[in-house]
Specification:
single chain, about 220 residues, mainly beta, 6-stranded antiparallel β-barrel, 4-stranded antiparallel sheet, 4 helices, 12 strands, extended
């Protein structure tokens, strides 16, 4: 079972446990997700739940989205949403989520262990010390000028005479899909559609994140 919720990261705060310990938590606002459709074994070769996130204004949707995308909602008589995502589920679980209904934060309860997926923050062009945690070169009088944070030689000899793909080098850092595993749901606030999840999750505030029950 891997059904989950799509939400937005609001920010971080601190809550206090019953024993008085301060627990850093990430606040995720998970507004009710629309059950957009079902994927079935007979028709699609697998079973999954399709959820729509964040209803769009019709005029705004026409400007931002393509006609084929909007046509999916029109065909089913549903209002356009910003994002559609699939969650693999067992065939028997599809009956628990009728098309057109909503999935809320009630899917989780206090103490649940979850995996949170998001897009990490962009850090621009980064060197090898920041990007790959390399040690750098010696900092003494005998070392060359201003090479302390350089990565050193990257080439090969005559054979193969090239730099292998995947070589750790400077480059763009961040803006990558990342999943933080085994985080605990510290609290659920259903009236505000909020989840308080222990620790930090990828992305800036207001970034879209996906919360699933822990895979292991």
């Amino acid at each position: 079972m891997s059904k989950g919720l799509i939400g937005r990261k609001i920010g971080m705060t601190t809550v206090f446990a019953e024993d008085g310990a301060a627990v850093p938590v990430t606040v995720v606002e998970a507004a009710p997700n629309l059950v957009f459709g079902h994927r079935t074994q007979e028709r699609d070769g697998y079973t999954a739940l399709q959820l729509g996130f964040e209803e769009l204004d019709e005029k705004k949707a026409e400007r931002r989205e393509t006609k084929p995308y909007l046509g999916q909602f029109k065909k089913k008589g549903q209002k356009p949403h910003r994002l559609i995502k699939e969650f693999r589920v067992d065939a028997k679980e599809l009956n628990d989520f009728a098309v057109g209904s909503q999935v809320t934060v009630a899917l989780f309860k206090k103490g649940d262990v979850v995996d949170v997926t998001g897009t990490s923050r962009g850090m621009g062009f980064a060197g090898v010390v920041k990007r790959h945690h390399m040690k750098g070169q010696a900092r003494n009088a005998a070392s060359a000028h201003e090479v302390h944070r350089h990565m050193g030689a990257v080439g090969q000899r005559k054979t193969p005479g090239r730099v292998f793909k995947g070589k750790r080098m400077p480059g763009h850092m961040g803006v990558a899909r990342r999943t933080v595993q085994k985080l605990t749901v510290v609290d659920v606030v259903p009236e505000s559609n909020l989840l308080l999840i222990s620790g930090s999750v990828p992305g800036y505030d207001s970034a879209v994140v996906v919360i699933r029950p822990a895979a292991r």
